[in-house]
Amino acid sequence: MRRISITLLVLLPVGVFGWFGWRALPSLASPAAAALPFTAVKRGDVSFTISSKGELQGGHSKMLAAPMTGSREIILTSLRRPGEEVEEGAVVATFDTTEEAFKLREAEADLGEAQQQVVQAKMESQARDVELQYELIKARGDLRVADLETRRNPLLAAIVAKQNDMAKEGARDRLEKLERDYPQRKAAAAASIAIQEAAVKKATVQAETARRNIEMLTLKAPTAGYVSVERNTNTNFYFGGMQFPLFQPGDTVRAGMAVAQIPDLKTFEIGARVNEQDRGHLAVGQPVDIRVLALPSVKFEGKVSNLGGTVGRPWDRYVEIKVGVNNPSPDLRPGMSASLVVHTDALKGVLWIPAQALFESDNRTFVYRKQPDGWVPLDVKLVKRSESRVVLTGVKEGEFIALANPDQMRETAGKTDTKGGAMKALAK
Fold first, then answer.
1. What does the pLDDT read at residue 426?
2. Which of these, 339, 327, 337, 336, lies nearest to 266 by C-alpha position?
């Protein structure tokens, strides 16, 4: 009896556990009864970051643009290769100078002709001045002779005396007219010279402008660095979704278009794109962690240096940003890929949950809170969202919050159970 009692005492718990295990086995094997994942509301400091990828390029870029020469379009005749290093003053690009060279030759020819016209005008002015002087001397002599003749009038007949008086008056009138017209005739000669000198100045300016334009049609590096060739948006070979091609010799360029940049190799910056919805979290000066893929063991730091406008297609809007590298290395090269983590904000002592625990529907923002009778939706107020966390109010620290929608979990479980029952029926 003792042995039987001991055996029953040992087997009874085993049988009970086995029976409960057998009853629980279908529910454990079925995904429908799987436990709903949940988490607790936490309080602490939350840092918000924005991740992106970009490409290294030299900083302090100097832009080289097609010159404003008066022509709408000019032809690019030579251009350095992208990425080629250049010294200060080195020729980077040249444009066709045929039109400006023709203008220079034409202006030089006009200048030579105008200079000859000035010389001719001055010689003619001198000749007219000598002629006027002679006419004045002759008029004064004629008046003197007529005056002497009138002195003999008492000895002459009345009619002869009258003729002498009339001759004297005529000589006086001619002299007075010459003396009165002399300044005007001198001014006319000077004006003729001034007109020709103005033509000389005009031709000189045209020649200087043509020389300056010819010089401007050669773009030189304002500083040492490397050549970053711009994209040609003046081309017809473009289709939706494509990138514009880089400039190359033979392309037609509009005056004022940027052809290349000369970034230096002492400072570096990274151009990156950030989703439009993160634009409000960005500000110039925010710290950035930088990882260059080609130098995985080196950690670089930087700051947001520039925020561009929102661009892109309606379904893919983004913001272009520039990040300056604070601690550049000689191993960095233009074109290297880099990953960025921008630290935008840090909130102290706030309530937060994982981002997947927050739900939005019908202009509501809510979570599923654990209650004795199950998971109940609770409206909350979103304070700020990051990629992995959300800061909110309306909940208490330590409360259990579902990480998935309980209704969807039940629907999924129901479908799974139905499918499992059908499979069992088929098996039977």
1. 41
2. 327
Residue with tokens 């970034």: 263
Task: Give pLDDT < 70 ranges for the chain.
Answer: 1-34, 236-242, 413-428
- pLDDT value of position 23: 52
- The residue written with tokens 């990828």 in the block is 53
Q: How many CB atoms lie within 10 A of CB 94?
A: 16
Query: For residues 353 and 129, what is the distance between their CA atoms, to the nearest angstrom?
Result: 104
- Kindly report, residue by residue over 353-381, the tens digit of the pLDDT: 998 899 998 889 999 999 888 899 999 99
Q: Which domains does the chain show, CATH number per domain?
A: 98-209 (1.10.287.620)
Residue 99 to residue 255: CA distance in whole angstroms: 14
Q: Which residues contact 210 (CB under 8 A, 6 or more apart)?
A: 100, 101, 103, 104, 107
User: Dihedral (C-alpha) 304, 305, 308, 314: value to the nearest 10 degrees?
Assistant: -20
Helices 158-216 and 98-150 pack at an angle, to 10 degrees, of: 170
For residues 100 and 2, what is the distance between their CA atoms, to the nearest angstrom? 123
CA dist 100 to 64, 76, 106, 257, 259, Å? 20, 14, 10, 19, 20
What pLDDT does residue 423 have? 45
Look at residue 181 in the predicted model and tell me its pLDDT. Answer: 81
Q: Give the pLDDT of residue 425.
A: 43
Of 267, 337, 257, residue with least CA distance to 55: 337
- Each residue of 386-414: b (16+ CB within 10 Å) or e? beebbbbeebeeebebbebbeeebeeebe
Q: Residue 32: its pLDDT value, please?
A: 40
Instruction: Find the radius of gyration of the CA atoms of the chain.
Output: 49
pLDDT in tens, 329-354: 878 888 889 999 998 878 889 999 99
pTM of the complete model = 0.51
Residue 40: the pLDDT is: 93
Q: Cα(375)–Cα(369) distance, rounded to whole angstroms? A: 5
DSSP string, 173-197: HHHHHHHHHHHHHHHHHHHHHHHHH
* Angle ∠(9,15,20) on CA atoms, nearest 5: 135
- Amino acid letter, 186: K
Half-sphere exposure (Cβ direction) of 413: Cα atoms closer than 13 Å: 17
